[in-house]
Design goal:
single chain; alpha+beta; nine-stranded mixed β-sheet; four-stranded antiparallel β-sheet; 8 helices
């Protein structure tokens, strides 16, 4: 059995227990949670409950026993991981571009989760899903940078809470086509599924989820019309940075969904950029900073991942081109 204990705070006072548990146990469906009550696996303030419609009060204590499932049947795989930090509760990795977070259609091996299972001898939180043990947030396959993963269930729940409440700092570096008119700006706008292409997200006038990205201009290369932008996430929506930057006219370079590389390259004819786009793959986006409270001891942790080789190569090429032509 996996044993869980929760103390109800102000945010969940007066809310039905089934709704609260759905948020606290994201890896379980509502039906799976409901099925735990008749067999006596859910207690409220020490008493077994059979109905989850009860509304909760401040400091109520919920105890849950969840049968252990074969969540870590996924085979580990030996690989060279760039580990930034590790203790008994969490592990922080600098994920390379091109590596999927976990297995899925078309990606049965060479994923971050499989590497972590091998590295930790299977000591990851079983929460998160059958193929996503310990995963509380994700980077797109072709986005590199800092990822934090839970090794224990307690750490998983606390990290999930921090991400859902956005009580952390996440910064990204992007190389973009075009140059913003301002050195700093705040981009807002709800993000939802694209009405035609369901693999894409888009800014929507109605519906979707609220999204906010703060951008700061780091560097510009005027002749090739490229900028380097620091992006700070205030929310964490799918493809948020890529959607926001593209919608405002400076798409991330080499972004297959939201970029327009060929238009820019052929319009300007800088041969080195055309060569770079032909020789490399994946959007030029990197999660360089994560600042977060440790889920167990509460200490503030700050992790930084240096630019990957492809982005460093691009930066050097842009500098050389700018210096040559002025």
């Amino acid at each position: 059995m996996q044993k869980h204990e929760f103390i109800i705070d102000e945010t969940n006072v007066g809310v039905r227990m089934d709704r609260v548990l759905a948020g606290l146990l994201p890896d379980l469906s509502r039906t799976e949670i409901q099925n735990l009550a008749p067999i006596g696996n859910i207690k409220l303030n020490g008493n077994v409950v059979s109905r989850l419609s009860v509304k909760l009060a401040l400091n109520d204590k919920i105890e849950i026993d969840v049968p252990i499932q074969a969540a870590l049947d996924l085979a580990g795989q030996e690989m060279d991981l760039n580990i930034l930090f590790e203790d008994d509760d969490i592990i922080v990795v600098n994920k390379p571009r091109g590596m999927p977070m976990y297995p899925g259609p078309g990606h049965k091996k060479d994923t971050l989760v499989q590497g972590l299972i091998h590295h930790t001898n299977g000591h990851l939180s079983s929460l998160g899903g059958e193929h996503r043990p310990g995963i509380v947030h994700r980077l797109d396959m072709n986005t590199s940078g800092v990822v934090i993963v839970a090794k224990t269930d307690i750490a998983f729940h606390k990290l999930s809470e921090l991400f859902s409440k956005h009580t952390l700092v996440r910064k990204y570096i992007a190389f973009c086509w075009n140059i913003p008119k301002h050195d700093a700006a705040i981009i807002t706008g709800n993000i939802g599924r694209h009405f035609k292409n369901r693999q894409k997200m888009s800014m929507v006038k109605t519906g979707g989820k609220e999204a906010e990205t703060h951008i700061d201009l780091m560097h510009i290369w005027t002749r090739p019309n490229v900028s380097q932008i620091h992006c700070t996430l205030k929310t964490g929506r799918t493809h948020q940075i890529r959607v926001h930057l593209s919608a405002h006219g400076y798409p991330v370079m080499m972004d297959p969904l939201y970029g327009k590389d060929r238009n820019f390259v052929h319009a300007l004819q800088p041969s080195f950029l055309l060569d770079f786009c032909n020789e490399h793959h994946g959007q030029m986006l990197h999660a360089d900073t994560l600042e977060i409270e440790h889920p167990i001891n509460g200490k503030t942790l700050k992790f930084r991942a240096p630019l990957p080789d492809d982005m460093t190569e691009l930066q050097t090429a842009l500098d050389d081109y700018q210096e040559t032509f002025g």
